[in-house]
Every structure is written in C-alpha cells, then in structure tokens.
Amino acid sequence: MTEPRAKARLEVRQAIPADAKAISALVRRAYEELPAYTMSEIRGQLNNYPEGCFVAKLDGKLVGYCASMRLDAAVALKPHTWDEITGNGYGSRHDPTGDWLYGYEMCVDPKTRGTRIGRRLYEERRALAERLELSGIAFGGRMPNLSRVWRKVDGPQDYLDRVVEGKLHDPVLRFQIANGFEPIGILEKYLPEDKKSRAFAVHMVWRNPFVDRDQPKKFRLPRGVESVRIATCQLQARAVKDFKEFIGQIEYFVDVAADYEADFIVFPELFTLMLLSFEEKELTPLEAIEALSRYTPRIREALSEMALNYNINIIGGSHPTRMDDGDIHNVAYVCLRDGSIHEQEKIHPTPNEAYWWNIKGGDSIDAIPTDCGPIGVLICYDAEFPELARRLVDEGARIIFVPFCTDSRQGYMRVRYCAQARAIENQCFVVLSGNVGNLPNVGNMDIQYAQSCILTPCDFPFARDGIAAEATENVETLTISDVNLADLSWARAEGTVQNLNDRRFDLYRIEWSHPTARHQDDPHAHPAIGPHTAGGG
Fold first, then answer.
1. Same domain membership, residue 256 and residue 186
2. Residue 517 pLDDT more than 70?
3. Catalytic member of 105, 269, 384, 470
C-alpha cells in the first residue's frame, strides 16, 4: 500500500492580492526600524506586475516576499533613488517592454534564518529573467553595517571595496555577491529612511549569461486582445410607488446589459433619489437624506443579488449612507458577480451637498479587485481632482467609473472635461453615467443634464476623438461598448506619449497623510509617514 504523500512544508509561488495583509505584517517583522508599506502600495505592487512578485510560505505562514518589475536599461542602470524608480512604492513604473528585471523589495522573516528563503526568492527572479530572455536583474542593495564603521572608512565606496576584499563583513552584501550579483556603483540618497546604510545603496546587477550582451534583445508589446464590455445607464428620474417598483426599474437595465453579455453596468450618482417620490410630503433636505439612508441595507442586498443572478458587475451609482459615527456619506456600492460588495465613498462633497444635506467626505480611495482586473470609482466631483485618479491607477486600476449628477450643461461639462483629462493623463478608460429628467417635490432633482459616455486615451489604438461610445443628451438609454485593456498596456509602453512612465519622480510626488480606511482594519498598521519602503533589493 502506497503511503500518502506528506504535504510540502515550503511553498514558493507568485503573490496574489489575498496575500497583501500577510505581506504587510511580514515587512513590519523584517524591518522594524523602517516605515511600513501601506496596503495601497502593496496592492499597487501586486497589480502592476504580478508576474514579478513572489511569496514564500512555510507551514502555512508567509515568511518571504519579493517584488520586481521590468525596466529599460536606461532607467534601471542609471543613478536613481528608491522612490523615483518604484513610483513612490507602487511599482507603477513597470515597463512591459523593459529588458531588465528590477528588484525593489526583498524581505524574509527573521525567525526563518537558515531555511534559505531569500535564496529561493532570488532563484524565482532569476528563472523569470531567463524565461523572458531579459538582459539581467538590477537593484539597490542595503549595506546595514555601514553606520557601525562609518568613522573607520572613507565613504560608502571604500566600505564596499573592503567588503568585496573580505576585510569587512556585511551580511546583506555578502549574500547578494554569493548569489551572483556584482556591484557597479553607489546609489546616493537611495533610501533616506535607511539609517543603518546612511541612505546609501550598492547598485547591484546580475547579467543573464544566455543573452548576447552585444546585441540585447529589443522587446515589443504585441497588440493583444483583453476585451471588456461596459454598459453605462443614463437613467430617467421617475416617480415610483414603492421600493419594489424602483428596484424593478434598475433590474430592467441590469437584465438588458446582461443579455448583451456586459461585464460591467454603472448607474448614476444619487440614483436612489427616486425613492423620495412616494413620500407623503416633500421633505426638507436633511429629512430627505435621513429617509434615503434607511434604505441602505435593502439597496446593498438588491444590487448584490442582481450581480449574482445576472452574472454582471454592478457599479451602484451612489447612495446617501449613515456611517457608524453618525455622519452621512455619499457611497457607491460596487456589487460584483462573485457575491462580494465593495464601497467607495465620495471624497469631496460639493458645496451644495455639504450645505443642504450635511454630507461629509470620505477618507479612503482604493482600487477594487474584479474578475476583469482592478477598477476605480470617482463619484462626480471627485473626478475633478487629479490626485485621486492617479492613486487608483498607481494601484493598478485601468477602468475608472464616474457616476455623476449634474443639473446644467456647465456642470456636466466640468465633469466631462475632467474625466477626459483623467483618461489621457493616466492612460486609462473612464466611464460616465448620469441622471436625466426631473422629480417634482424631490430636492436636487428639479432638472438634470447628462450625456453618459465611455472615454479613452487619445492615441492611435483608440477612437479618433477619445470617445468609445456616448449617449444622446438627456435621453434614457443604455450605452454599451467593448474596450480593449491590452491597448492601454501598449499605449503606456509604446504610445505616442507615455504619461505614466514620463513622470518626474525626482521632482514631485503625491503623499497621503494617513492610512486608508481599508488599512485601518489592521490593528498593527503604521501611520503613513513619508516614503514607504522596507528596504529594496
């Protein structure tokens, strides 16, 4: 009788989004003296180049993590800082045509020393570089014993020379050299938080012996197909007699979009205001918001059931919701066809929302994982703040949905022009969905103006005018279009302009002042203080 095979104790594999919390905890254990990553940064690393991120699990516990991306030699081999090369920790400078693999994170649980976890992760990187026929691997290596002997050496280069000659000991450099890496110089101000290395790093490279160095391979990104079908609902405001009739109106459009095999359907901002039409009397603004917020559990449940039953991802416009602290926020409920429900609060209430309805702004903006890749939601006014879209794209979002509610053409055009700008500067798709018509005796629904649309970057793979599809103005309709996410990858790598790659990280950065709400559910989460990194390499 054959004995059952014992389960392997050690597993080394590609990292997945579900590993994010465990990775965050590992980084804190491995580098107590350095600021922790935010969950946002970890999500960006895993989304921007998942093939370059690996984890090691020992007896079911995550004990090793490394992150890497592809870069052109002109970027990977010239002097740089960690923030500059990684896009402030998100790995957002990944270039799918790059001929070098750049490692910017490597950490191992201190309690697993002796199990060669680090070596195994390096082997995964090396195997990836060889399989892709890349020129090699580069990174900035720490030199943690530098501070101890600073008065005894003549700077970081002298320290490096002595380590190479065996006159000084540095465990990190010794490990990297033993793994076939060679130093090509010193990187100054690489990681200001790394006090042990005095902010210096050793520029290390491994050259792929299976690639002709005199004729490095030039990579081109094929114009592949990664099709996603999107439906945007331009919704007519109408009086309804009860909640069931309202949901019936919404389900009609979900049904139609599902019949067309759409992957997503998006509804307008405050599309639930129709629920006020069957109130016995016109409510004051504060009474109206209070009445709407009581429908929140039923809205969530109804949209989630539709997403499951019709096999479609639903971007539920937005709905006023009373939060745990008693404040009212304007929240988009994103109900996915796998049964999960995500929330995205409006960050910036308009002056009218704040004055009449006392709506407060949220403090969390994050990409949402879906079966079509990460997406983002910016509710109306939020689309007019470019920092928010940039954060979503840094986290890996390639489609941004913008539910809106505007009463005039001027208001609509503000949202429309800003949304088009977000599509261009972030090389992503932006989808708008608005209300039309009016509701007597319902505040904020006196008149509505909308022309819902699906916007694209402006470059050769896309529609000539940057519009994949758009609805007729002020007419209730469903507008459907296919978009090719692979075109975005091509445009970012080989397009006429390459906004994401060409950012000047040496001059400016976006820094968030505190953890996101999704990070706050981790009791050990550190506040976001300056650049976030655990070490590089």
1. no
2. no
3. 269
5 falls within a domain = no
Residue 362's DSSP bridge partners are none
Q: Where are the extended beta strands (E) located within 18-115?
A: 54-58, 61-71, 100-108
> Per residue in 100-113, pLDDT tens?
999 999 999 999 97
pLDDT at site 183: 97
Of 524 and 287, more confident: 287
Verify whether residue 380 is a known catalytic residue.
yes
The predicted-structure confidence for 84-105, as pLDDT tens digits, reads as follows 999 999 999 999 999 999 999 9
Q: Flag whether the pTM goes above 0.85.
A: yes
| Least confident stretch, 139-143, 147-151, 379-383, 498-502 | 498-502
State how far the Cα of 413 lies from the Cα of 419, in Å rounded to an integer: 9
The verdict on 139 and 234 lying in the same domain is no
| Token pair recorded at residue 400 | 């941004």
Encoded tokens for 110: 């201190």
Respond yes or no: is residue 346 known to be catalytic. Answer: yes
Given the residues 346, 353, 453, 470, the one annotated as active site:
346
Question: Is 335 known to be catalytic?
Answer: no
Quick one: which of 15, 17, 88 has its CA closest to 397?
A: 17
Look at residue 212 and tell me if it is in a domain.
no
Do 203 and 235 have their domain in common?
no
| 158 plus 282 within the same structural domain | no
Indicate if 100 and 164 belong to the same structural domain. Answer: yes
Both 318 and 433 in one domain: the answer is: yes
3-state secondary structure labels for all residues of 316-352: EEEEEEECCCCCEEEEEEEECCCCCEEEEECCCCCHH
The owner of tokens 């998006």 is 266
For residue 340, the enclosing domain spans 227-494
Total number of domains in the chain: 2
